[in-house]
Specification:
The complex is a heterodimer. Chain A is mainly alpha-helical. Chain A has one domain: Helix Hairpins (Orthogonal Bundle), CATH 1.10.287.3510. Chain A is about 80% helix and about 0% strand. Chain B is mostly helical. Chain B has 19 helices and two strands. Chain B has helices at about 10-35, 45-60, 80-105, 110-130, 135-150, 160-190, 195-205, 210-225, 235-240, 245-270, 280-300, 305-325, 325-355, 370-375, 375-390, 395-410, 415-440, 455-470, 475-485, and strands at about 70, 75. In chain B, strand 1 and strand 2 form a beta hairpin. Chain B is globular, with a radius of gyration of 22 Å. The chains are: A mainly alpha, B mainly alpha. Chains A and B meet through helix 1, helix 2 and helix 3 of A and helix 5, helix 6 and helix 9 of B.
Chain lengths: ~100, ~500
């Protein structure tokens, strides 16, 4: 059996990659993908803990997270597509009407 | 692994769930009704939303003295739930009244607007009633997804779209932190139920466990984002500014109250009072939030942005109550949230009425001379401003008195001094609005006011509550104290 520390390390690495992606990338779609990576890192942690502790709660939680993530994709892509229609850009640097 | 017991519901449980069922049913009914198109100009969706919110409030009111834990303790019906359900229904109803005419004149009059508003209200109620991190997360996302769409509801409007994109990306980012925090807390304690977490922690304290500490801090980050506390406030002015004003009113009151409700529930139930390690962190966030909010608000010329920074500052005052902690701190926070919600709804409500047709007037200078031309608008705006600034005899003053009294009782003298100094600073920009109303002449075309009966009703209700709670604060405070009883 794979020790839990390996899964947790992988989950932490994925989470950090996601955070860095959100902070350094300027394309709204890539930022969004990085956010999904963060959610999946959390999912991996849930499943790993769940298996380690022989408790179902964590696995159930993953189903909720996947459903919520799917809903988030529907809303997020709609906003980004609408943005592209209006402005013909998905780069967050060029989306700067509101400031102050 | 233990088998999962089937949930058994008794008659009283249905009453306890009544608010949630009514809101879900109302939202779905509104969507289905769209297959039969309403006459142009019909108010069907708004009337049905009001009805749904009224039924929902009535259902929770009927069962207000019942105490129930439903679905294996995931959803609890206690004083705290009742207080927040009634508050969210009221916030929803006032927002519907404010939207009534506004969505029409800005060309976003669709039933989906009200459906999303009801869904977001439902999410807020679930957040306040949850006793499990899973349901808190689902409630938070239900609220946020509704709000993301509502913020971008003016699809052809560049600012609205930009606000939605920024709110969405930063909101989803914060959800990621919150979720990872929950995962770590689950790993450290072996449960997502707040009650079982409390039981686990009382047997084997995890004070120094790095996984537990990191989980708690990530969770705190997620909530700090939702209540717009510095340094997680960057989305607030842009989202509030770009969103349709009626949505700004709704989210400034509702989303903040819901974020604090969930934070209070987690802090008081699961962690047995705000953990001591959080004290310095919460104090630092409170000081930063008050100061950055107020100082930045001084520089604003746009009314919506000014109120956005003011709402950040108010989150700071509520955080002071949270730092004080305990039952008194929680009840002062509840009192402040109720008061803040109505005075803020009123202030944004007036902004929804400024301008005619598709034109919107949102600058402080647009108010010039309005106080004498439109006495009701002038009077109401003045009351909301002095209440937000914390001057008697208004509710805002009583809210600050209770918060600072509780903080003094907990020995947080430096925090109270900074809070009071901040209130003084805030009076300066709130009074600038009053000065514009009564002592300035309009430059260029004077601002017109779009009168509509529902908005006037909303305005009178918020105005009455702001004044009433300023004079008779005792009843509301008693309610707030009673509703936090079950938590500790």
């Amino acid at each position: 059996m794979i020790p839990i520390s390996w899964s947790l390390a992988l989950s932490a690495v994925l989470f950090v990659i996601g955070v860095i992606g959100v902070l350094v990338r300027r394309n709204a779609l890539v930022i969004f993908m990085s956010i999904e990576l963060m959610l999946n890192a959390a999912n991996l942690a849930f499943v790993a803990f769940s298996r380690d502790m022989q408790s179902l709660d964590g696995q159930v939680f993953v189903f909720f997270v996947m459903t919520v993530a799917a809903a988030e994709v529907a809303v997020g892509l709609a906003i980004i597509v609408n943005m592209f229609r209006l402005r013909e850009t998905v780069f967050v640097d060029e989306i700067n009407l509101l400031k102050g | 692994m233990t088998p999962v017991p089937a949930p058994q519901l008794i008659a009283l449980d249905w009453w306890a769930l009544g608010a949630v069922i009514a809101l879900s049913a109302g939202a779905m009914l509104l969507l289905l009704l769209e297959f039969v198109p309403a006459k142009p100009g019909s108010s069907r969706a708004a009337v049905l939303s009001l009805l749904t919110l009224a039924i929902s409030a009535a259902a929770v009111f009927v069962a207000r003295d019942a105490r129930r834990s439903i679905f294996d303790g995931m959803f609890v019906h206690d004083g705290f739930t009742v207080f927040f359900t009634l508050l969210f229904c009221a916030i929803g109803a006032v927002s519907v009244l404010l939207s009534w005419d506004y969505v029409r004149r800005t060309g976003i009059h669709h039933a989906e607007y009200y459906v999303l508003l009801l869904c977001a209200t439902l999410g807020m109620i679930v957040m306040a009633a949850s006793n499990d991190l899973i349901t808190i997360f689902v409630g938070l996302e239900l609220m946020s997804l509704g709000l993301y769409v509502l913020v971008g509801f003016r699809r052809a409007h560049l600012e609205s779209n930009e606000a939605a994109l920024k709110y969405f990306l930063l909101g989803a980012f914060a959800s990621g932190f919150l979720l990872y925090g929950i995962a770590l807390l689950y790993g450290a304690t072996g449960t997502t139920s707040l009650t079982r977490m409390a039981a686990f922690l009382s047997e084997s304290p995890l004070r120094g466990n790095p996984m537990f500490v990191a989980g708690g801090l990530l969770l705190l980050t997620g909530f700090a984002f939702k209540v717009a506390a510095v340094p997680f406030h960057m989305w607030t002015p842009d989202a509030y500014d770009g969103a349709p004003t009626s949505v700004t009113a709704f989210m400034s009151a509702g989303a903040k109250a819901a974020g604090f409700a969930a934070l209070l529930r987690v802090g008081l139930t699961a962690l047995g009072g705000m953990p001591a390690e959080w004290g310095p962190i919460l104090s630092a966030i409170a000081i930063l939030t008050m100061t950055v909010g107020n100082v930045t608000a001084l520089l604003q010329t746009n009314l919506k942005r000014m109120l956005a920074y003011s709402s950040i500052a108010h989150a700071g005052y509520i955080l002071v109550a949270l730092v004080a902690g305990g039952r008194d701190g929680a009840s002062a926070a509840l009192f402040y949230l109720a008061v803040y919600s109505f005075m803020n709804l009123g202030a944004f409500g007036i902004v929804t009425m400024l301008g005619r047709g598709r034109e919107e007037r949102v600058l402080v200078s647009d108010l010039a001379g309005l106080g004498f031309r439109q006495p009701l608008v002038g009077l109401a705006m003045t009351v909301f401003m002095i209440s937000l600034g914390g001057i008697p005899p208004t509710a805002g003053f009583m809210g600050k008195v209770y918060v600072f009294k509780v903080a003094l009782g907990a020995g947080l003298v430096p925090l109270v001094i900074i809070g009071v100094l901040n209130s003084v600073v805030s009076v300066f920009y709130y009074l600038r609005v009053t000065v514009a109303l009564y002592m300035q002449e309009p430059q260029g075309e004077p601002t017109e006011v779009s009168w509509a009966a529902p908005a006037v009703v909303a305005l009178l209700v918020t105005l009455a509550l702001t004044l009433w709670w300023g004079i008779q604060a005792h009843d509301l405070l008693l309610e707030a104290q009673r509703s936090v009883m079950g938590l500790l």
